[in-house]
C-alpha cells in the first residue's frame, strides 16, 4: 500500500518529470499514446460524464483562514470516474470559474503523460475518450496541485448490449 505522503511524492516527481515549470503547448494523444486511449473532440459516445471544476476555498469567498493555510483550493467533481474499455465515453469538463484557467493532464497507469489540454474559464471542454487498456489513469490540473487531481478507472468491456 502506498501512503498518502508517498503518493504525493510520486505525483510531485511525475509533475516535475513532465516539465511543468515552463508553459507547455497543449496536445492530444500522439500515435503511440492513441494505442492506450483514443481522444476525439466530438463523435458518438455510449456514455457521458460531466466533471465540474469546484472552487473549494478561493480568495473571493474564503474562508480566509483556510486560504492562509492551504492557498486557494480547487477540485474536480467528481474526481473518480469509471469507464469501460472500448466504450466511447464523452467526458465534459465544465470550468465554472469566471476568471481562472484550469487544465487537464491525463497519464497512463505507468505515469506516462498522454495528453495535456486547456480548460478555459466559463467553458465546457469535451472529448470522447475510448480507452484501449484497463487500469487506473491519473489526471491533474497542473495549476492547482496537489488538490485538483483525479483518477479514471478503466474497467473491462461492458457486457450489456
Ligand atoms: Cu485548476
Feature tags:
binds copper (II) ion; 10 strands; mainly beta; elongated; five-stranded mixed sheet; single chain; 161 residues
Short recap of the structure:
By secondary structure, the chain is mainly beta. Helix content is 13%, strand content 42%.
Explain this structure to me?
- The protein is elongated.
- The chain has a single domain (4-155), classed as Sandwich (Immunoglobulin-like), CATH 2.60.40.420.
- The strands form 2 sheets. It has a 5-stranded mixed sheet with strand order 1-8-5-2-3. The chain has a 5-stranded mixed sheet with strand order 4-10-9-6-7, with no helix packed on it.
- The N and C termini lie far apart (36 Å).
- The chain has 2 helices and 10 strands, in the order H-E-E-H-E-E-E-E-E-E-E-E.
- The chain is mainly beta and 161 residues long.
- Bound molecules: copper (II) ion.
- Residues 74, 102, 141, 143-144, 148 line the site of copper (II) ion.
